[in-house]
């Protein structure tokens, strides 16, 4: 075909491409005789130069002689054999069956040729009989596949009646046999899914790949595979289900039971969501609290998932089905892990031990904070602080800690009860328990959050004041209209006051900066711990466990493509290939079938985070959806 | 029909190119890479263990030694399973497609199949590798949306970055390649 000669022009890659020219056309053996261009009788019935590919199911390789039934794709010159019709048959009934299948599945099923599975010595009568069938079921080209019983030698011919090279002699094409496992191809799904539009029988889609057409054809022709050899139908077929239709008792029971169960659960879930959407929840301050607690977010997320799983609508596409299955498995695993956690907590009085340990831990944290503040009020790390400001800030924060400790001590009799009830919530799922843990950490370290906010605001104020007074010191000012720094002439008293204030702020800067640094680090520590918990929750929420399990146990279901293997080859015999499914790699499975997560991702990049820290702006790394800006 | 020729790559390892002719429209090119050398394996193991022993004398914790053994084993298994390629095969089937298989030292095989309809062209590209210019064969893929654009450039035998220059030159001289380039 010589596409290489166009490669130099087409490859505008920036790298020089040296093109190897093929030798003169005579040196390259061209096994396919190209027909005269005007010779094709059925418009697009052949593509010159293409080898005819016959896709043959492995289950029919040991079937008795008969007719080949399948689909012919002229654009790709491939014949997809779906089943074998055995003798005896009545041609009218075969044609009726094919018309039925064609109408139901929109696939152009036709008789493609004959299949002959014979003994060592060729039977002449059978040969003539098979050739005679070509006149009853006319198809262009007519395939003749032949196999000797008990050996591996196959022969196949494709005869074209209407395109003769020499008049009166039907021409033959080169044929390539490709074996495929019908059951696996039927059940598998190609990724990325190529959407083939619905087409009328007989048409084919030329733009999509030939393999997508094969998968699509086999998947659509399910009606053809419904009967098995024990049926008393008029036509006896051989295909992957002819030994007996695959079914399972449990599967059928589950299908029957799923209708009413889904209905019941859908009603319950709609009731729950109606209650949660009730107007009572909109009274302030409940929406504010709800937006801050990650538990509510997680519960809402789970409710959404469950509603989708148990909705009474059937899944439209395989992707939706996988999504539903993934959600169901994720919820089940979550609940199982939660129940394990629950049983562990309630065994041997763990809750009591936890409650007993909680108050001393909170006391210890407060004590450590007090030590820290005393250290800051002295000469921390050898730095000299401004005594007055130091004392003020230190006493301010110490008083807060004192308030906090009193609050904790007030709550201590109720802690065990609260923990016991919170532990019960683990039966809703491990993710809910982890979210509650994260919320408890947030509540217990609320004083650290307050200190951080105070320190940050003070520092922020100082930084802005400093920058503005620095500009004044240099005789410039910020022009708000033009958003730039302009020079400005100040009065003497303005300059005097400004410089005085500037000096004061500069000398007070180390103290404020140190307090800000310490509390920011503490806050970042708490945020990191909460972030790790959220990451774990996210992982459990979004990991597609059903797809991963499917990829592990039934790798042919998720296909990234196909792979070919050349089977034993004898000279003079047609080339035989085995087509196997190439499964999707695990990373692609996770990427394609990931469930949408809560959406609690850090919104800042590292650069903007550092900038915010430097200027003292408050950081909210774990923004929930629908939060208002503070 | 089989044919075997041997070449050497940039590092001096021995590469073997096999060409198999199955039928007029099906050919296979198989490139075998140099094996894992015992010297490099011994050197890496000794380095890791010496480092572990040094840390052990510093900290007197026997966990370091067991950890070193685990690291060596896991590292070797990971290398054999994910990095070390034994053999690369290129199977070309007329009017069906091009299949590239890499088989790793642990037996894992990873296969890519490109349909003939997606192949826009096969070109030989130049690349600058360190201080020399090497040539490599690559397949240009069509963009499904825009048939005139090139969506991807897929180098053939892409894992053998060190073996490209000499082996590919050897590949270019074989008459099979002219046939290969004339298909598609």
Overview of the molecule:
The complex is a heterodimer of chains A (630) and B (184). Chain A has 630 residues and is α/β, with parallel strands linked by helices. Chain A has helices at residues 4-10, 91-105, 124-136, 182-187, 210-220, 249-276, 286-292, 294-309, 318-346, 350-377, 387-424, 430-444, 446-474, 492-542, 545-553, 586-593, 606-615; strands spanning 17-18, 52-57, 66-73, 78-86, 109-118, 142-148, 154-160, 171-173, 175-180, 189-190, 237-238, 476-479, 484-487, 558-566, 575-583. In chain A, strands 2, 3, 4, 5, 6, 7, 8, 9, 10, 11, 14 and 15 form a twelve-stranded mixed sheet that branches. In chain A, α8 crosses α9 (318-346), α9 packs across α12 and α10 packs antiparallel against α11. The relative contact order of chain A is 0.08. A six-stranded antiparallel sheet of chain B has the order 1-2-3-4-5-6. Chain B has a three-stranded antiparallel sheet with strand order 7-8-9, covered by helices on one side. The model of chain B is unreliable at 161-170 (pLDDT under 50). The chains are: A alpha/beta (630), B alpha+beta (184). At the A-B interface, α1, β1, β14 and β15 of A face β6, β7 and α4 of B. β1 (17-18) of chain A pairs antiparallel with β7 (119-129) of chain B, so a sheet runs across the interface.
Number of helices of chain A: 17
H/E order of the elements of chain B? EEEHHEEEEEEHH
Helix content of chain B: 25-40%
Mean pLDDT of chain A: 80
Pathway (chain B): Glycolipid biosynthesis; glycosylphosphatidylinositol-anchor biosynthesis
GO cellular component, one term (chain B): glycosylphosphatidylinositol-N-acetylglucosaminyltransferase (GPI-GnT) complex
Family (chain B): Belongs to the PIGH family.
InterPro entries (chain B): PIG-H, PIGH-H_dom
Per-chain topology:
The complex is a heterodimer of chains A (630) and B (184).
Chain A: H1 4-10, E1 17-18, E2 52-57, E3 66-73, E4 78-86, H2 91-105, E5 109-118, H3 124-136, E6 142-148, E7 154-160, E8 171-173, E9 175-180, H4 182-187, E10 189-190, H5 210-220, E11 237-238, H6 249-276, H7 286-292, H8 294-309, H9 318-346, H10 350-377, H11 387-424, H12 430-444, H13 446-474, E12 476-479, E13 484-487, H14 492-542, H15 545-553, E14 558-566, E15 575-583, H16 586-593, H17 606-615
Parallel strand pairs in A: 2-4, 2-9, 5-6, 9-15, 10-14
Antiparallel strand pairs in A: 3-4, 3-5, 4-11, 6-7, 7-8, 12-13, 14-15
Helix pairs in contact in A: 8-9, 8-12, 9-12, 10-11, 12-14, 13-14
Chain B: E1 2-8, E2 14-23, E3 26-32, H1 38-59, H2 63-83, E4 85-93, E5 97-104, E6 109-115, E7 119-129, E8 132-142, E9 150-155, H3 164-173, H4 175-182
Antiparallel strand pairs in B: 1-2, 2-3, 3-4, 4-5, 5-6, 7-8, 8-9
